[in-house]
From TrEMBL:
Protein name: Serine decarboxylase
Organism: Solanum stoloniferum
Catalyzed reactions: L-serine + H(+) = ethanolamine + CO2
Positions bearing N6-(pyridoxal phosphate)lysine: K315
Family according to the record: Belongs to the group II decarboxylase family.
Domain of life where this protein originates: Eukaryota
GO terms of molecular function: carboxy-lyase activity
Lineage, broadest ranks: Eukaryota, Viridiplantae, Streptophyta, Embryophyta, Tracheophyta
A matching Pfam family: Pyridoxal_deC
Matching SUPFAM superfamilies: PLP-dependent transferases (SSF53383)
Amino acid sequence: MVGTSAVIESMSSAVNGKEVADVRFDPTAVVPELVPAVVKSEGVDAAVNGGGEEQKREIVLGRNIHTSSFSVTEPDADDDSTGDKEAYMASVLARYRKTLTDRTKYHLGYPYNLDFDYGALTQLQHFSINNLGDPFIESNYGVHSRQFEVGVLDWFARLWDIEKDEYWGYITNCGTEGNLHGILVGREVFPEGILYASKESHYSIFKAARMYRMECEQVGTLLTGEIDCADFKVKLLANKDKPAIINVNIGTTVKGAVDDLDLVIKTLEDCGFSHDRFYIHCDGALFGLMMPFVKRAPKVTFKKPIGSVSVSGHKFVGCPMPCGVQLTRLKHINALSSNVEYLASRDATIMGSRNGHAPLFLWYTLNRKGYKGFQKEVQKCLRNAHYLKDRLIGAGISAMLNELSSTVVFERPKDEEFVRKWQLACERNMAHVVVMPSVTVDKLDNFLDELVEARSIWYKDGDVKPPCLASDIGSKNCCCPQHRMIS
């Protein structure tokens, strides 16, 4: 091994009367101390490890601090210990798999379809698949899955009624990226435009406004969670001199409410906005793929004056990694697209590098299920959602279910341990269960039985009352003592 004396050889030379070090690089030299020293734990970890006086760490929302971790340790220089290292890692992974299996049993509050089997794709995990740049233009990087990506995009183009030569899109790394891209296209089409979004829109919409330094108007909502077009009209008329960029929710985050796309368009027209003065992005993260199969549902289609649609791939579709699909009109994309010599391609995406495995998973499940398969799963979800809502109401628990939704909103459980066990998403006095294809009636029954039993303990002495949800879901859906007496 070459020591540090061989790494740097210093010679002095006079430059303008000053001594200057001439450092020569030795490519054969080895850094003697490869592993950095272990950083001492501070704050919560220090208190746990006995590392001195406890320093309080800021707690987000007052709970859910994560303090455990699986340490990364350097392998020993002795090759004979490699087997022990492999055995240790195997045991850690085995325990982690058991944890995943257990937590999956109690997964209700987040919109992920956990019912999938992609065993046929394990043969592809050994490849580094990266869909760099534009999906429709070949790059110099040959290990890609563009042929699958474009096939998936064409499938969604048919679903949303736009011809192959009229759309552009790509498979995103998550639903938020789809929203960021849709809003960005709107901003590029109308640089001076104002972004309008209901207050119950996904937080990524307001993140986009901050990132792009856009003027943003939050629009009020109805009790259902839908955009209030009366308030929308007031805000449009107050800014009539500027183009409008609108986010339309195809299923809001908490209540699963679907904005009335036709009414949004009519409101724009009534306020004097011609079709060349507004851009509509449809955030269909969860319900964008469910809506086409729901009777009486407003149709999301590019035959209407919309600019883009995005949907998540890891939600209703059931992809095992976060991903999404974003489609926009081809005529809009030139404002974003630029040549990249390094790739021998063009790029109009947000991230550039994209998960090349995601298109394979999406292509596989779309081929297996098709339109008819998704229709059956939508019907199952809606049926089970109504079952859950009816049982909640029957047990005297406040609950609401929008007509076009599989998201059941109900009274927030009093015990946070119960919330964490069932992985419920909560806001104010509300919690919700998102009924996905992987949520069975048996799972709902187990949840309901535990909830009813737990409530009998939480509220047994009468000193503590269940919360009133009238202001959140309407008095007719509220089963608090006050509104139960009225009804």
